[in-house]
Amino acid sequence: MNLLSGARRRAVAILGLVVVLGVAGVYEATRLPSSIFPSVTFPIVKVIADAGEEPAARMMPTVTRPLEEAIHRVPGVRLVRSTTSRGSSEISAQFEWGTDMQTALQRTQAETQRIRPDLPPGTRIDVEWMNTAIFPIMGYALTSDTRSQAYLRQLAEYTLKPALIRIPGVSQVQIQGGRQREFQVWLDPAALRSRKLAPSDVVAAIQADDDVLSAGLTEQNHELYLTLVDGRVHGLEALSRISVPVPGGPPATLADLGHIDVANEVSYIRTTAGGHPAVLVNIVRQPSANTVAIARGIGQLLEQRPDLIPAGVRWTTFYDQARFVSGSVGGTRDAIVIGVLLAALVLLVFLRSFRLTAIAVAALPATVAVVGLALGATGQTINLMTLSGIAAALGLIADDAIVVIENIERHHRPDAEGDPAEKGTRQILPALVGSSLSTTVILLPFALLTGVVGAFFKPLALTMALALAVSFLIAAFVVPVLASRFGFRGRHATGRQPGGARDWLRQGIPGPVREALRGTAAAAGRGYDHVARFFVDHGAVSVASLLALMAVAYQLYRGIGTDFLPTMDEGSIILDYWTPPGTSLTETNRMLDDAEKVILSIPDVSSYSRRTGTQLGFFITEPNRGDYVINLKPRGQRRPIEEVMSELRRRIARVEPAIHTDFGQLLEDNIGDLTGGEPQPIDIKIFGDDQQVLQQKARQIASVISGVRGVEDVFDGVVIAGPALRIEVDPVAAARYGLTTQQVHSEVAPAVTGSVVDQIRIGDRVYDLRVLRKDDAPLQDLRVRTASGGLIPLSTVATVSTGKPETEIDRENLATYVGVTARVSGRDLGSTMAEIRSRIRRQVTLPPSFSIRYGGLFQQQEQSFRNLLYILLAGLVLVSIVVLFEFGDWRAPIVTSACAASVLAGVLLALHLTGVTLNISSYVGAIMMVGIVGENAIFVIHEAREELRREVPVRLAWARASRRRLRPVAMTILATAFALAPLAIAYGEGSQLMQPLAIAVIGGFVLSGPIVLFLLPGLYRLLDPHGKLARE
Fold first, then answer.
1. Which candidate, 181, 179, 164, 165, places its Cα nearest to that of 315?
2. What is the pLDDT of residue 492?
3. Of 803, 828, 854, at which residue does a domain stop?
4. Tell me, what CATH number does 194's domain have?
5. In this structure, what are the phi and psi dihedrals at residue 84, rounded to the nearest 5 degrees?
6. 356 & 467 share domain
């Protein structure tokens, strides 16, 4: 206890240290990056293989399976999921949480490179580590009524991109849409036939002529020269002069064989914004970058460089995560400030002293400021979870200060010897240590959490632990110093301070009213004493009450709705869509134009962008698929996002029923993609070895769940790529003419979409050179060059037919499946899945070798709830250990555990009354209540033990302990409730994430008061009727 005396003697130094640390903490907090969520290392690596237009049935054995097997060899892989479509394979490798992902990425790249020689020639492989930094944080659109899409594309690529990439924190600038310019050589079939040439002859001539080669080094005039043979083409004129050998005749130039021009590339990607064709510019940040700072930097750049956007070009924002980050961080910050002010009002009413209230309240910003320094030291950022950790700890911080001040005030008597601040703190310090440990150890098991729950809530738990540690130090060493120097200065012998809050309140209340209030308070005090003594005398009633509360908690738990994470209103909608398989790009655009008219007619919409044939993120996309990003107006100017999505869903389905839609929110979907590639809440996987039966059962299950209330955006998981023209080469006939399948392909490609055969460099820009063949004749009449130099019709060596549409093939750990997905609207996920499971069991019969597995966010929810249950039990054990060490009495942890279990009734009742589901956030609130009940129980037991040591009768000791703890417990409950009230009412953007936690803590706190003040003494006296606690 010498530390307390030392602190009093060095009061100025201690106060100065707190001020310095606080200022440093505020400065550090302003420097920390701001984001929505903590920086999380998601253990997923995605591999995308592009093999042109290979059929899915061929892609599976030649590309997907070898890659799957190679990825399975990487240490730490626990699940490999793949999607195979026409020409592409998308493979997701999930590793164990905690894996060193840089090493995992390198090993995955090494394994895929090792099998590259075994893959089809020309296969391109991209390997990416999936993390929040791969998704755009800002999205801009370039549109114009006078400039071409090719001009806008070049403006984005060569002017804006270099300027934007230099902004600190930007890792990528992704350009989507527009039209790339390219050199095109349109071959004239008649000119080729007259010279007995095939397209392959022209391609060979171009590739041989447009090149630069080194002839070696030569020494002249005492200098060493590199000798270069340069035949590179630098424009249309040079390209037209390229010579093509003609069998038996003089060479021909490219100009003799067709038309040469610079034109737009052939593309099946379309992008729009606000109803106009657009080039989209997406900004991707570095993992540790500050989203708000990047947005500010972009604004400053465009303000300083207005020439970047020429006249006639519009630069608009279609997605701005920085706005949501600023709103969320600012809203949570404001909630903390409002909570502090409300808590201060509560303390003023109870303490009735401006000075004591100021001292207690000063502990709140002092703690928060020092925690800012600790967050920087531990590598955290300013995000919803760290700020929410501070907000959730406000009540506990206030409680530490309240306990010390209330105990100091009790020791401030006219006849008291020594410093009452030191004496009061010394008397309560053992209990303060135990209570602080009780609320801190409950947070330790969160370090063991894995998955998205651990990734999000570990920073919250760390922040709370830091806040509680700082709060203890301030309450134990700073608050007594302030109380000794300022809290009681100028008080009368009665201990009352003239002109203080007590006199101020008394003067503002008329005499009769004051007397009535005094009489009411006295009667309430007598009534309280009567109730307290009743429970102390009737321990069986306490036991029955605790059991009844546990039974109520169990019944509420069985009936309450459950969800994974609370749904936030991000202000941005991601609308995935797809049109019927094989729909042409022209028809898809017509259908989407109708959908865009609906979007434009919604008054809540601020802006939007659309991608067709591509998507945000790192995904393979068919030409009939794409997405919209719809940006809504600020919260105060629109309806809730769920209402907007419901109206869009209904109206788009009415005007274009053939468009299939899937509505979500951007960040929510990104997190779903990063936690396993399953952003939908409902994902029903049917495993089997027969693709036809899988598709049949998938459609049946989709039909079954479509009738479940609240289920929306049902998709049967069958993705059809559309029809294909199949050219089947006859190997015997081809061999007869000395041809191979590859040679036939090289002859056919120019007649379809053309072949990119070379690249032309002009300055610092690179353009593709595409060779095409303009021929209205049927494909089977196409002339093909034989090995002997002759020309034969394609029909001589191959058959042209229309193939059946192909479906995507999904696999998980090498097992084929089809996944039926859906979302939930207006209902909790838990009850929805219970009904879905029941209906599937009754209505769907699977073949013997088939099985069903439930994935999606529901699977994440089940895993998380199991882990949190273990955390709850572990926390209960740790709190019990702290209580046992504090008092050395085996009865103490039993009583504390019983109280903690029963307080869950208050948590669940609060959720039930407010219509909030039991989700990860509210579950964490319930776990916190275990430590909080332990804290309050320690103080009550400590008070009773102090009375028993003075040989007060057992009955009276427990009654006095209950009465003495009434005011601090009431202050703590009300201060916590008011401090969390802004979060509980979802004040500010993004606060919906922590609203369930706030409601759960408030409900638990309110019930914890009667439990620790009435039921705990009765139960303890029942177990310890002779007061052995004082001798332990």
1. 164
2. 45
3. 803
4. 3.30.2090.10
5. -115, 125
6. yes
Give the pTM: 0.84
- Rounded Cα distance, 345 and 361, in Å: 10
Structure tokens at 213: 């080669």
Predicted pLDDT of residue 521 = 66
Task: Tell me whether residue 102 is exposed, middle or buried, using C-beta atoms within 10 angstroms of its C-beta: 0 to 12, 13 to 18, 19 or more.
Answer: exposed
First and final C-alpha spacing in the chain: 21
- Classified as helix, coil or strand, 533 is helix
Cα separation, 826 vs 833, in Å, equals: 14
Domain encompassing residue 8: 1-31+352-508
Rounded CA separation 46/65 (Å): 15
pLDDT of residue 498: 46
Question: Is 322 within a domain?
Answer: no
pLDDT at 758: 81
Q: What are phi and psi of 1004, to 5 degrees?
A: -65, -40
The verdict on 484 and 372 lying in the same domain is yes
| Placement of tokens 């572990």 in the chain | 874
pLDDT at residue 680, as a whole number: 85
Please check whether residues 478 and 449 belong to one and the same domain: yes
In this structure, what token pair is assigned to residue 652? 């788009």
Looking at the structure of the chain, the number of domains it has is 5
Give yes or no: residues 625 and 588 share one domain.
Answer: yes
Q: What is the DSSP string of 864-908?
A: HHHHHHHHHHHHHHHHHHHHHHHH--THHHHHHHHHHHHTHHHHH
- According to the model, what pLDDT value does residue 821 have? 92
1011, 1004 contact by CB (below 8 A): no
| CATH for 635 | 3.30.70.1430
Phi, psi of 493 (to 5 degrees): -65, -25
414 falls within a domain: yes
Residue 906, token pair as written in the block: 């208050």
Residue with tokens 């002293």: 353
Q: Which residue has the tokens 């902004």?
A: 167
pLDDT at 777: 67
Do residue 504 and residue 360 come from a single domain?
yes
Strands (E) across 102-239 are located at: 124-130, 138-144, 170-177, 181-187, 212-220, 223-230
Is 658 within a domain? yes
Indicate whether 198 and 68 sit together in one domain.
no
pLDDT digits (tens, 9 = 90+) for 844-865: 999 998 999 998 889 888 988 9
Q: Compute the radius of gyration of the chain from its Cα atoms.
A: 36
Q: What is the pLDDT of residue 901?
A: 92
| The token pair that represents 78 in the structure block | 């626990």
What's 993's domain CATH number?
A: 1.20.1640.10
60 and 18 share one domain: no
Predicted pLDDT at 431: 82
Tokens of 394: 């406000």
pLDDT of res. 592: 92
The answer to the question of residue 835 being in a domain is no
Token duo for residue 254 = 């490219």
Q: 745, 769, 803 — which closes off a domain?
A: 803
So what's the pLDDT on residue 667?
78
Q: How far is CA 71 from the centre of its chain?
A: 26
* Residue ranges in the chain modelled with pLDDT below 50: 1, 490-496, 498-499, 501, 504-505
Beta-carbon neighbour count of residue 377 at 10 Å? 11
Nearest CA-CA partner of 123 in 189, 80, 67, 165: 67
Give the per-residue pLDDT at 162.
93
E strand or H helix that includes residue 608: strand 605-612
Distance set, CA 99 to CA 75, 102, 671, 776, 959 (Å)? 10, 9, 18, 57, 55
Say yes or no: 498 and 368 in one domain: yes
